[in-house]
Amino acid sequence: MSVNHNRGREPVRVAVVGLGYWGPNLVRNLHELGEAEIVWACDVSEDALGTLGRRYPAVPRTTRLDRVLGDPDVEAVLIATPVSTHYELALDVLRAGKHAFVEKPLAASSSEAVELVEAATERSLVLMPGHTFLYSPSVEMIREVLVSGELGEIYFISTSRVNLGIHQPDVSVVWDLGPHDFSILRYWLGELPTTVAAMTRGCLIPGTPDVAFVHLGFGSGTIAHVELAWLAPSKLRRTTIVGSDKMIVYDDTSNEPVRIFDTGARLSDPQTFGEYKLTYRTGDILSPKVAATEPLALQLRDFCRVIRDGGTLRSSAELGVDVVRVTESVDRSLELDGRPIRIEPNGADGDDGLQLALRRERGEGVLHKAL
Fold first, then answer.
1. CB under 8 Å to 166, separation ≥6 — which residues?
2. Is pLDDT above 90 for 226?
3. Environment class of 197 (CB within 10 Å of its CB; exposed 0-12, middle 13-18, buried 19+)
4. pLDDT at residue 102 in the model
5. What b-and-e string marks burial along 288-305, b requiring 16 or more CB atoms within 10 Å of the CB?
6. Which neighbouring-strand residues pair with 243?
7. Which residue of 61, 102, 143, 221 is surrounded by the most CB atoms within 10 Å?
8. What percent of the chain has pLDDT over 70?
9. What is the value of pTM for the model shown?
10. Which uninterrupted H or E stretch holds 88?
11. What is the pLDDT of residue 264?
12. Predicted confidence band at 368 (pLDDT cuts at 50, 70, 90)?
């Protein structure tokens, strides 16, 4: 990706738009990041701006987005607003000639996400979706193990991402929590699922699912089960990866977040017709040391690096499009009473000829590059 290097190694001058739940975390990390300088904090709420001002009195604050977009000193804008606003705000930022960081998911539909990628590409601007877990040292360590082939063939992956709250006002639990696991699976396996099927229920608010069970099938043969819920007795962030040679348990809330099990089963060659024997192996458990670095700080550093030096984002815009496609396919499966939806490599997702009209024709090339 081509970027403007005119400012050399100076800090990237950024603005943060949205100071609700996640925006203050962006400000805190940016404030401590030598690669960035906060030029503006923007929110429609005077109360939110006042709260931020008491903690960071030197950060200029405004309720007017046009003031941010019209400031030539602003190089990049970080958007931490409700999902329904991501597309419009990000498009305004890109059209203003500024790099954009958009909290996950990138947009509320894949057609919108593709249009954002197009807008960024046409203007040689950096567009990053906020898939922060891709920068978790634990997630990166597991990816290295998977790429090394140490686990053998990946049979299946099971994830649980549940807690009591927070019910989001504008999206379902799938759009709120699902992108975390969908992005991690995309990063680990290097492929999109080929099929998606789902079941959900709106336990508290009719029509707004707060629990979901999502089943994913991949071309490599791996299958995955993703459990998501805003209603659970305790917070759980646990993933199990089962391979033909070894297994991994990733628990984001544990003091030992990654454990590698030298455990498995083998089918011995039958001695006679119809005779099959399984042999089970239980070996050592390795708990490697994982760096205690905040993923969000690493992500923002990557964003600034690519703005200054070019290169490829770990949380790329193309990956962001893929995550939206998977999330959208969950909704489509629900519309069809849980029937599996096929995700086609060319972006023409559907089931039995039913097309989702996910993108405009010009988005075809962008989606090809994402796979």
1. 21, 230
2. yes
3. buried
4. 98
5. eebeeebbbbbbbbbbbe
6. 154
7. 102
8. 88
9. 0.88
10. helix 83-95
11. 79
12. very low
Residue 367's SS3 state is helix
The structure tokens listed for 291 are 């760096």
DSSP 194: E
Task: Report pLDDT digits (tens) over 170-223.
Answer: 789 999 999 999 999 999 999 999 999 999 999 998 889 999 999 999 999 999
- Give the C-alpha separation, 179 to 23, whole Å: 18
Residue 253: CB atoms within 10 A of its CB come to 10
pLDDT of 354 reads 31
pLDDT tens figures, 95-118 = 999 999 999 999 999 999 999 999
Q: How far apart are CA 260 and CA 313, in angstroms?
A: 28
Task: Give the position of tokens 């006679």.
Answer: 272
| Cα 1–Cα 117–Cα 146 angle in degrees, nearest 5 | 70
What are the structure tokens assigned to 133, written together? Answer: 């877990």
CA 135 to chain centre: 10
Closest to 329 (Cα-Cα) out of 211, 212, 189: 212
Query: Is it the case that residue 72 has pLDDT exceeding 70?
Result: yes
Minimal CA–CA distance to 77: which of 67, 66, 68?
A: 68
How far, CA to CA in Å, does 48 sit from each of 41, 52, 63? 10, 6, 10
Q: Got the DSSP string for 195-248?
A: EEEEEEE-SSSTTS-SEEEEEEEETTS-EEEEEEES--SS-EEEEEEEESS-EE
358-368 burial code (b ≥16 CB/10 A, e <16): bbeeebeebbe
Q: Using the structure block, give the residue that is written with the tokens 């597309």.
A: 87
Q: Which amino acid appears at position 100 of this protein?
A: A
